[in-house]
């Protein structure tokens, strides 16, 4: 490469980076971001207040009068938060002492610098991704500042309920998994691919079960997941599963790398988490992968997102189930965690408001951890929004371009569409959908299996 070529390339990159489209924001009246901030977020706050209030007796039993006082103070902080949101008040600095408090306050400065002169970051003026994440962090702050109840997860009841309401579907998928595992060594490559695609799609559609999009309403899986896959296929807008398969298969064939590590960046607890565990089990028992690293949230997040407590609770519940194949699955998952085949991590970066293209600079330790992976699955909508920066991209922009340099390893997004950002479509595909179904990007009816591998390997 000549010096002048290098300069031109750099200048071109510079031009590209300046041409990044704006963040989605509630400042566009009538947009999905606007409706979310106006309607859905206050509803979630109201439910959080109700949940804390309903647990008053529990707080009294555990902490006496001090618990009741903490409950009152937390509720008053949440009511104040709801009022700030609804009246578009400035975003305030956090005042608690968590490990990420400084990072949040620095990010507020950064958002401030992006505003017009004399304007402050606020709920209806700042990027939607930022203020939505900020709301969940403020819920955490309102508990954190009230020590006896600081570890209370306001969303746990909803997550547990969603798990129990999906029992039949969980039993069905665990039974399917155990049947498959019996003869897994005898499956031909074609059959293995077929099963891989089935379980990948189960994990994809498991992402429909999201309590933040339904503002906490029941959104559980009721029917048997494998049976409905064929009828759901037309709703997968991008299906790169063959490219994902080739990464896994290169390992399995003679001469392939011996230890293939797959990372799964989780989204929701409940049925979706079960589908992720089933996929992980299949990858290990088929020999397609030897290690699985799960990544969850370090605090309650977007109502139904998986925390360490949810992860451990789910496996314990599966193990303790009064059903042979479900219980057997839980026992196997427990063993995988004990013998170091599976790992669970919860880095604070996952609950920061940053786009993932910031990760290398703002969370270099996490970025280098992900670089060790052979394949990273990013589950769900929030991860997709962070992968693409939650920006107003044209639908035909390549996925790789929207990642803006975030390429720690080959990665695959498994996402049902619940926010109006979607890249990597064919020309006309987005327009046709908009013409026939104006809310195709937010209804959760459509999905993508979207893959990108680092440039250096292409
Ligand atoms: Mg979620």
Give a brief rundown of this model.
With 458 residues, the chain is of the alpha/beta class. It has helices at 3-18, 32-54, 56-63, 65-86, 101-114, 128-144, 156-165, 167-182, 189-206, 229-232, 241-252, 271-285, 308-319, 324-338, 359-362, 364-371, 380-387, 399-403, 429-436; strands at residues 236-239, 261-265, 291-295, 342-345, 375-379, 411-416, 447-452. The chain is built from 19 helices and seven strands.
Features:
seven-stranded mixed sheet; alpha/beta; ARMT1-like_metal-bd; manganese; protein carboxyl O-methyltransferase activity; methyltransferase; EC 3.1.3.-; 458 residues; 51% helix; Rossmann fold; disordered N terminus; binds magnesium ion; Transcription Elongation Factor S-II, Chain A; 2 domains
